[in-house]
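Thread: Modeling a multi-component assembly for a lab meeting

Hi all, long-time lurker, first post. My supervisor asked me to bring a structural picture of a complex we are working on to next week's group meeting, and I have zero experience with this. I have the sequence lines for every component (486 residues in total). Could someone generate the structure of the whole assembly? Inputs are pasted exactly as I received them:
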Amino acid sequence: MPAQKAHSGSSRARRGPPWTAENSAGFISPVGVAIDVVLLSVRDGALSLVLVRDDDDQLVLPGGFVLDTEDAEAAASRHLREKTGVEAPRHLEQLKTFTDPSRDHRGWIPSLAYLALVPPETDLSGERALWQSLSDGVPKLGYDHTGILEIALDRIRGKLWWSNIAVGILPGEFTMTRAREVYEAIAGIKYDPSTFARDLNHTALVEPTREHVMTSRGRSAALYRFVSDDLVWGEGRRKRVRG
Amino acid sequence: MPAQKAHSGSSRARRGPPWTAENSAGFISPVGVAIDVVLLSVRDGALSLVLVRDDDDQLVLPGGFVLDTEDAEAAASRHLREKTGVEAPRHLEQLKTFTDPSRDHRGWIPSLAYLALVPPETDLSGERALWQSLSDGVPKLGYDHTGILEIALDRIRGKLWWSNIAVGILPGEFTMTRAREVYEAIAGIKYDPSTFARDLNHTALVEPTREHVMTSRGRSAALYRFVSDDLVWGEGRRKRVRG
DNA sequence: AGAATAGTGTCTGTAAGACAATATGAA
DNA sequence: TTCATATTGTCTTACAGACACTATTCT
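Re: Modeling a multi-component assembly
Sure thing. I ran the full set together rather than chain by chain. Output:
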């Protein structure tokens, strides 16, 4: 049997009769399981995502089929690596599964949407992959991918002040100003610098490293790090987002 | 081809060689897609869920296979109806999809977990279905269902004061005391009656009907209703839960 | 009258927005 | 010295917990 990879991604645009599948008990079964990944970061002060150009020249989310030897998280990481060159996202979480049997013209293919985060300096290797800034609004994507992107943005904004989810984007050590830029890009609003620092410290999700750095001009800034590299929930700050 | 229903649910306990499936393009495909539903309500002041007894006499969540003619929400409603007699849950939302290919001994079967809510007076018709109170802790369930239940409880607690999710459990019109009992059962803590009323009103998710009812003894109580029957997000109250 | 339930009013500590004032380092 | 950035401090409003007090209706 040929590798499943052969029918993933690049053949998506192909038309023709849909595929079918049947299991050994004689019942109709899905043709496959797919994943789509919303890979976000904050670049040059703007929330940005990775898109790939498919065979129809549409901009779509990176994704592809799940193999029978891996779970969906592994498939998401694998397709990111193959299609965008991103080795391992710092954060990966499930968003929603789309199950309408007619959602994919190739046949009955449930699709799992994922949210992934990487640091800003992440470079892409695939020729078809590109960073797209969200500062000018949400771009129109192929298939149902615009809707998936909206879900991803709701999710990361919803978690911003209630978890350490920004650990997926910020470097290991960062200044308050750096953190604020990332939070502002995600939230879509500006925060007062002093209030921001007070409230982020108040979450107890970050701790000072006792080191200082010069950024450009002006006073040197204290460095902070997240207490945990894994996703954890904090006390929660009821701070404005997207106002 | 026989109805897919024949291989759902009751045959789950059967051992033997796993099923396999292949699609018309010659690739391995999932054997099927399943759903499992955490159906919750508040009965006699206790958060309760519906369980069914499977062929191995294990207590498990109601669920079964998704057909190629329906999406997963429809499958969840259908299996609830068939296995528990619950006609249509007042609320149904996706929790998480489990995709480990080895999670089901019958073969490669991704499973979607759902949270469903019904009013307390909902009676069950299936002989194998029962209401289980959660007041004495979380019961041990078969398969990975205990973990799914934990996710469901986290979800409903997380949304309690940020959405009108209780609309799935409370009757169309209710007193503040009734609402408080439901919120307390979900949150797992007690609320001060006057503070509760003040804060629930403050969400603007409920409105008074201008009617009053006698409950048993004491002063008559004002009736309220949720402004929307669909799930909506409120301003959000930063109230304690599960303390 | 007394008990039981519903509802109002008030006090207090904390949270979060706004912004003034000070500290530190480079040009 | 002057500018730019970082950090501390203050003021104010709103929120949420606690709880005293009033209102209504039944036995």
